[in-house]
Amino acid sequence: MEPTFVLTQLDATDSALEISYRINNNSDQEIWLCKNLGSVFQYFSSEVSMTDDGETLLVRRRLDVPITGFAEQVFGSFIRIPRASSLGETALFPLPVRPHRVTLPARGRDEAIKYVKRLRIEVGYYSGDLLQMISRMLEDAPSDPQAEHVDDVGYPTDAIGWFGNSIWFNKLNEIVPDRNKQVVIPWTNQSLKGEQVLHAVIGNLHVPYVEKADFMKSSLESLQDCTRAEVHYQPSLFEYLFPHPIQQGVLDYDERRYLQAQKRLLVEDPILISGLINGISKEKDRNSCSSCILPDRSTMAHVVCYRGHERLASFVVYDGTTIVTDDRRCYRYLEEPASIRTITSAIEWVEPFRLRVACAANLSTLWYRLRLYHQAERLHLENSPSGGQVVYPASERWCDAMLQILQIAEHAVKAYECPDAGEGPCTYAMNSNCEPDSPGDTVLLFETKPGWNQHGGPELFTFDNHEPKGGCVLLNDGTVKFIRTEEELHALRWK
Question: Cα separation of 269 and 398, whole Å?
Fold first, then answer.
């Protein structure tokens, strides 16, 4: 069976069209669904454009399409849907609907209002293990030194030319919080084969559309008089701050329960309120969207702003990067506005959890880099004997080797420092006894005092980088754990 699209609700008001639906994976394998597409500098949920018939609105999330006149490199973000699972979404279109095109050709600026009679949704997806398919393609590429993947002027001629190599692809995905469930891939001029398309048509509509792409005045400007803000988390602060398993895995049962009990935050500090409003109102940091694709409305932050006791307005934050206002306007940020992070970081008991999770993310990043070390060495050193076998750098110089072979940029060195440990070139050590083929639960990296090329065993582990006391360890299978006691430390596999 193939994946299916099921319409669950359709609401049309004077301000917006909202379409809720579920995508069911009825097939016998996982699928990877296109979630977003855009450039390095801005991401949008979908392309939106009236078709040539003047009556059908095309809403498209696909990467295996030609591009007409788009100057920037285009990327697509794909999310994993396991077999027998489903994904619920709501497509929100502020009215009148305006176009947004990434790969579609531009049109003239017609100011006349047209009316949409039907809506056609196209969503691209890959069946099977997309990550494994890409990994095998990139691993096999260097084995044929005669293969040319770019033309004489450097323009890619095949999928490998667009992907570059495993190292570049890994760097592209280091922004992804859960790489088991999401992947970012480049547009490849239709040379990456296998994308299929899920279609759905919704008729009997009468929705205004205007080709002129001028954006309306931001309703966020009305928040400047705010003196008090209430933030309501749904279902709780825990799910909003730490939605991914790798983040939740370093919090214990009591910590999770405590965060799950926190559902409301009152902000009255004038400095925090000013920072919150100014941060989300900066036009240079956001894009006004012709549409937003919102996930199941189970995890969000609803911010209500007051002037004294008078309610001014409110907005909802989805995924930290999408804001929807009272009047159903959509704004999308490339990354979570610093002001949203600041109000939670100002809560004294939240910050230790956030720093611990950031430390775990560092170790996860280092795990992917270590697993790619053999490929980087093969690219960097001519006639390297490592072949396709995973090889770790020598533990006595692992930091130097990683920086040299992987050619780490300065900003990426931050992954070597626990954010809760203060200044230091590297606050992680390598277990000298761990090899690529060691059991998956063997310790690979662990927290220690600041140093460089540190290696050894549990004698180097420190509990002092975090409060409450404890430290993160990275296992050979990529799992990150937070160790709180000497008993837990010595119960780990070190050989």
Answer: 46
